[in-house]
């Protein structure tokens, strides 16, 4: 990957980190604002606001509008993470204890609420095409909630199919990435056909990203990921790997669950890695993610060269991540 692109990404991430870590929260009450500062100070990739910014720059969007929209998206994303961690009882996020681990569930709920309100305040600072941007932003926020609802409904449901999973992923992960594409298009006054194609880009890269995330949760490590590993599969939640395994090797998967019953987490993870590799599930799941990333490249045809190149580079950047 070109060094100049990686430098561009690093500069955008650094700028966003600075804006978030210096967000002008009041000092009081500490019960609300200390956790908000804590969340935004975590080590995060900022992929969503980076994508929104790159797309806006490709369309020549006003820089102030872009910055407000990028902040709004990252605040919204962090709201979903804080509440997801409560629902999933996760203890590590962005390399630090989750809010409910450091404080408690009540504090985490309020912190998530505060982040959602701040996201709303940030998006209302956008000036061009403001009403449509605000509508798309909230449609995306609700879609993420719908995706999370499906995710919770699907837990331990052995009748869920890969198609069900992909529909859930389109909402939970793809919707946020779609609004990162559609909002810049609206800020640039693009027609509906362009907006529709860019929404599809978000859904495709979202599916590829979530499948990849499921893989990394098993095949990466906690230090790189900055969050708990294996919790979804060990809890028998529906992931790309477990669903592919149920399709390709259902009997071996059932035997794995029975054998791993009371094993420590590290031993369970090692057993799952071996199983997914030996049965071909790992390779098949990687191929499925690759297909959606390739679809995302095709979706970018509505963006003229040479501006399209930076977004293709972004896809390759996401594909090459190991955390």
Would you spell out the secondary-structure blueprint of this structure?
Blueprint: H1 3-21, H2 30-40, H3 47-59, H4 63-88, E1 92-93, E2 96-97, H5 99-102, H6 105-123, H7 130-154, H8 162-187, H9 192-219, H10 222-225, H11 231-234, H12 240-248, H13 250-260, H14 265-278, H15 281-299, H16 307-319
Antiparallel strand pairs: 1-2
Helix pairs in contact: 1-3, 2-6, 3-4, 3-8, 3-16, 4-6, 4-7, 4-8, 7-8, 8-9, 9-15, 12-13, 12-15, 13-14, 15-16
What report would you give on this structure?
The chain is an all-alpha fold. The protein has one domain (3-319): Farnesyl Diphosphate Synthase, CATH 1.10.600. Helix 4 runs antiparallel to helix 6 and helix 15 (281-299) runs antiparallel to helix 16. It has a two-stranded antiparallel sheet with strand order 1-2. It contains 16 helices and 2 strands. A hairpin with a 2-residue loop joins strand 1 and strand 2. The two termini are 17 Å apart. The radius of gyration is 20 Å and the shape is globular.
Multimeric status of the protein = single chain
C-alpha-based Rg, rounded: 20 Å
CATH-defined topology: Farnesyl Diphosphate Synthase
Distance between the termini: 17 Å
- Tell me, what's the shape? globular
The number of E-state strands comes to: 2
By secondary-structure content and strand pairing, the structural class works out as: mainly alpha
| CATH superfamily (homologous) name | Farnesyl Diphosphate Synthase
Task: Summarize the helix and strand pattern as letters.
Answer: HHHHEEHHHHHHHHHHHH
Q: What is the count of distinct domains?
A: 1
Q: List segments where confidence is low: pLDDT < 50 over at least 5 consecutive residues.
A: none
Strand order of the largest sheet: 1-2
Secondary-structure arrangement, i.e. CATH architecture: Orthogonal Bundle
Percentage of residues in DSSP E strands: under 5%
Helix percent reads: over 70%
Largest beta-sheet characterization: 2 strands, antiparallel
* Arithmetic mean pLDDT: 91
Total number of helices: 16
CATH class: Mainly Alpha
């Amino acid at each position: 990957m070109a060094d100049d692109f990686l430098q561009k990404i690093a500069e955008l991430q650094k700028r966003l980190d600075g804006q978030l870590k210096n967000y002008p929260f009041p000092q009081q009450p500490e019960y609300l604002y200390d956790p908000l500062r804590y969340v935004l100070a975590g080590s995060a990739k900022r992929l969503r606001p980076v994508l929104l910014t790159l797309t806006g720059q490709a369309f020549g969007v006003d820089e102030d509008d872009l910055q407000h929209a990028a902040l709004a998206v990252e605040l919204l994303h962090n709201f979903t993470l804080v509440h997801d961690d409560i629902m999933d009882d996760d203890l590590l996020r962005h390399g630090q204890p989750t809010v409910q681990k450091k404080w408690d569930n009540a504090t985490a709920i309020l912190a998530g609420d505060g982040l959602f309100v701040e996201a709303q305040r940030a998006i209302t600072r956008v000036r061009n095409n403001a009403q449509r941007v605000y509508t798309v932003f909230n449609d995306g926020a609700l879609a993420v909630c719908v995706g999370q609802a499906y995710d919770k409904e699907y837990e331990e449901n052995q009748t869920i199919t890969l198609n069900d999973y992909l529909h859930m992923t389109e909402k939970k992960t793809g919707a946020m990435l779609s609004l990162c594409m559609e909002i810049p298009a609206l800020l640039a006054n693009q027609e509906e056909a362009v907006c529709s194609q860019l929404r599809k880009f978000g859904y495709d890269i979202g599916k590829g990203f979530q499948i990849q995330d499921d893989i990394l949760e098993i095949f990466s490590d906690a230090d790189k990921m900055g969050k708990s590993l294996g919790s979804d599969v060990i809890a028998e939640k529906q992931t790309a790997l477990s669903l592919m395994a149920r399709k390709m090797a259902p009997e071996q998967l059932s035997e794995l669950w029975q054998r791993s019953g009371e094993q420590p987490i590290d031993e369970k993870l090692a057993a799952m890695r071996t199983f997914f590799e030996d049965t071909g599930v790992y390779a098949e799941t990687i191929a499925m993610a690759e297909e959606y990333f390739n679809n995302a490249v095709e979706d970018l045809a509505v963006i003229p060269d040479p501006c399209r190149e930076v977004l293709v580079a972004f896809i390759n950047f996401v594909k090459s991540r190991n955390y």
